[in-house]
Amino acid sequence: MVAEGLVTRFHGGFCYVMVNGVVKACLPRGRLAAGGLLVGDRVKVRVARECVVEEVLPRRTELLRPPVANVELAVLVFSLRDPEPNFKLLDRLLVASRAAAIEAVICFNKLDLMEGAFPEELNVYHAVGYQVLLTSALTGEGVAGLRAVLTGKISVFAGPSGSGKSSLLNAIEPSLHLKTGEISRKTRRGRHTTRLVELLPLPGGGFVADTPGFAQLDLPDIPAARLASSFPEIAAAGVECRFNDCLHLREPDCAVQRAVAEGVVAPFRYRHYVNFLQEIRDRERRSWS
């Protein structure tokens, strides 16, 4: 019998596939065994004495880091305190999500540690059109709203170690019993607790991937001219530039530079754009040499 299923994890040489609500340990056939499968792949399996993955169905989306296929929603988790939020990494993740055609939601966790005013950057992300959630895995505040966002979708949690991704997933569904860690007193960074990507079913419908945390991320392989489209406020302001191919650096009559000067585009977001643009252009030059 051949049936369709969803790859949920890999372990011990087996590919675990959910078929009709039941997870089966399968062996990938032929070339698929050499790395041709990702968590999140929809596959055809032959169910017999031995379950075998025969074919990978076309992917709608694909992320390389974390390596997950068919993701519909990326939940980018950063802590409000301990450690402090890394907005440059957040913007990298937003660029990566846009390049992969995946909707992104920003979640700032550890609301219970907040004292005084919130970082001004939070208002910037909300103003440019991103959904921004505030949560506390410890107290449960905001968890219901996050759970509602995940319902019915294949989602991925991504962000630096120590931001509380696994703790949030445990708060959403306590039966997951995911391992969590503490912040290193020396580095003020989180210790890695998630080692492998795994797709976890949610009781309300949908799946979520718990993924290893990380502190750095390479920019996606996109042309320099396309980077501005990953910054909604820069793309909107750029419509008024004199030149259609304006990169918003030192070109005359650049509407984006004017918007930065007038406070319409947040300076920190523009700085990140310029930094990323330089990285992409450097990479392009290396590829030409």
Automatic annotation (TrEMBL):
Listed GO biological process terms: ribosomal small subunit biogenesis
Organism this protein belongs to: Ammonifex degensii
Gene symbol of the encoding locus: rsgA
InterPro entries with a match to the protein in the record: G_CP_dom (IPR030378), NA-bd_OB-fold (IPR012340), P-loop_NTPase (IPR027417), Ribosome_biogen_GTPase_RsgA (IPR004881), RsgA_GTPase_dom (IPR010914)
Protein name from the UniProt record: Small ribosomal subunit biogenesis GTPase RsgA
PANTHER family: SMALL RIBOSOMAL SUBUNIT BIOGENESIS GTPASE RSGA, SMALL RIBOSOMAL SUBUNIT BIOGENESIS GTPASE RSGA 1, MITOCHONDRIAL-RELATED
Pfam (any one): RsgA_GTPase
Entry keyword Repeat: no
Entry binding sites for GTP: 109-112, 159-167
Self-association and partners: Monomer. Associates with 30S ribosomal subunit, binds 16S rRNA.
Domain annotation EngC GTPase: ranges: 69-215
Main localization, broad class: cytoplasm
A Gene Ontology term for the protein's cellular component: cytoplasm
Cofactor: Zn(2+)
